[in-house]
Specification:
The chain is of the alpha/beta class. The chain contains 12 helices and 20 strands. The strands form 6 sheets. A 5-stranded parallel sheet has the order 2-1-3-4-5, sandwiched between helices. Strands 16-17-18-20-19 form a 5-stranded mixed beta barrel. The chain has a 3-stranded parallel sheet with strand order 6-9-12, with helices on both faces. α3 links the parallel β4 and β5. α11 packs parallel to α12. The longest helix has 24 residues. The chain binds iron/sulfur cluster. The site of iron/sulfur cluster has 10 residues, from α5.
């Protein structure tokens, strides 16, 4: 009997949106690779294309719809998943020919749809999965998603209605995944979720054993346990609840990076209330000052929204004054744009004209750049450990503890011959710009 050799099925993948969506993409790809699928580098080389969409703001919706259109034009067979998948009609209105639409975190459904339109070549062999899963990030850093969903109801955000309430992963599972990542060569773990500091609330902090010790599913316990792994642990999307203070002690002990990503979004109490932000009543300036007392080198990153409905000139000046005192190291700023289905649309507040929003954003970013430049200047002459992300000729592009990948600055090292991607290096800072540093190898 003649055996029939089928060609390996190839899947194209377009991943849009935030790091949380990236983790979803990685999970889908891990599973498909385990089942013998290959990942195609171009639309043409793929047998079908999966588009993982974002639906957070209108601009992201447009970008997602364009990406679906491009995949349809170039390939023709398209499966859509991700946040925008929670609003299928929006997709079908523009692209009725897509094969299937699933919402966020529907890994099983996405994989089942792929099976339907592009059957797998053979049964899964677990050893086809690289030890760390398929990572879309370079292999020396990886995102670790600890929960899905969110229990808050910020008025500008539709994530809870798209992704549901907080659903934490059991602590044993999270720690085992982290351990496996480290074994596979990952040097930096970026902890992500919609609300990292709320981790485990839904599990009633249920304990599980890891390395022979009972660990509770609690933000502090998780950070403490991750600190045992001997790699960089970076905490994202943390809200300034009082219990976060304890994690600052772990930073002082060097167990987790002295880095906190806290989306403050605004500083005016009135606007924060309209936004329905978690921990809005906290005295954030006092907290930041206290954290810097304990860990003077802590890097605080945050994002802000200007031009929220009802934001007056006085509210905006209050935000600028707050930033001047807070001296945040890393800052991003968005002009408010209404999202369909968000509670903020019915606040009955006066909307801020587009040119005012733009001007406020520019003024805010100017001040942020000034602060960043001053803070980076203070690092000149200091020695620090960096992680090499890229080599460009004889320049290595690296990051220090102060820089998360993609969103923060870089450390450029000249005369980097002999350095390799994913390696740690000790450098001395020689120069500073508004966001980036220059360095030479120490010693
Ligand atoms: S904390 Fe607020 S902004 Fe963040 S996901 Fe939850 S509701 Fe949305």
């Amino acid at each position: 009997m003649k055996s029939v050799i089928r060609k390996t099925p190839k899947v194209g993948f377009v991943s849009l949106g935030c790091p949380k969506a990236l983790v979803d993409s990685e999970r889908i790809l891990t599973r498909l690779r385990a089942e013998g699928y290959e990942v195609a580098a171009t639309y043409r080389a793929a047998d079908l294309v999966i588009v993982n969409t974002c639906g957070f703001i209108d601009a992201a919706v447009d970008e997602s719809l364009d990406a679906i259109g491009e995949a349809l034009a170039e390939n023709g067979k398209v499966i859509v998943t991700g946040c925008l998948g929670a609003q299928p009609q929006k997709i079908l209105d523009k692209h009725p020919q897509v094969l299937k639409i699933t919402g966020p975190q529907r890994y099983e459904e996405v994989v089942a749809s792929v099976h339907e339109y592009l059957p797998p070549k053979h049964e899964p062999f677990l050893d086809l999965i690289p030890a760390q899963g398929v990572k879309l990030t370079p292999r020396h850093y990886a995102y670790l998603k600890i929960s899905e969903g969110c229990n808050h109801r910020c008025s500008f955000c539709i994530i809870p209605s798209m992704r549901g309430r907080l659903l934490s992963r059991p602590i044993g599972e999270v720690l085992r995944e982290a351990e496996q990542l480290v074994r596979a060569g990952v040097k930096e773990i970026l902890v992500i979720s919609q609300d990292t500091s709320a981790y485990g609330v839904d599990l009633k902090y249920a304990a599980q054993s890891w390395r022979g010790i009972e660990r509770r599913a609690r933000f502090y316990d998780l950070a403490d346990a991750l600190g045992e792994l001997g790699v960089w642990i970076r905490l994202h999307y943390v809200y300034p609840y009082p219990h976060v203070d304890k994690v600052i002690d772990l930073m002082a002990q060097g167990r987790v990076l002295p880095y906190l990503d806290i989306p403050f979004q605004h500083a005016s109490a009135r606007i924060l209330k309209l936004m329905k932000r978690p921990a809005a009543a906290e005295d954030t300036l006092e907290r930041i000052a206290a954290w810097r007392q304990i860990v003077p080198d802590i890097t605080i990153r945050s994002t802000f929204i200007v031009g929220f409905p009802g934001e007056t000139a006085a509210d905006f000046e209050e935000l600028l004054a707050w930033l001047r005192v807070a001296q945040l190291d890393r800052v991003g700023c968005f002009e408010y744009s209404p999202v369909e289905g968000a509670a903020a649309n019915s606040l009955r507040q006066e909307s801020v004209p587009p040119e005012v929003k733009r001007e406020r954003r520019e003024r805010f970013m100017e001040l942020a750049a000034e602060i960043s430049a001053q803070r980076l200047k203070q690092k000149i002459g200091r020695e620090m450990q960096v992680l090499i992300d890229r080599i460009d000729g004889d320049i290595a592009i690296a990051r220090s503890a102060c820089d998360a990948p993609e969103i923060d600055g870089n450390v450029r090292i000249r005369g980097a011959r002999g350095l390799t991607v994913g390696q740690w290096a000790d450098v001395r800072i020689s120069n500073a710009g508004a966001y980036d540093l220059e360095a030479k190898l120490a010693g």
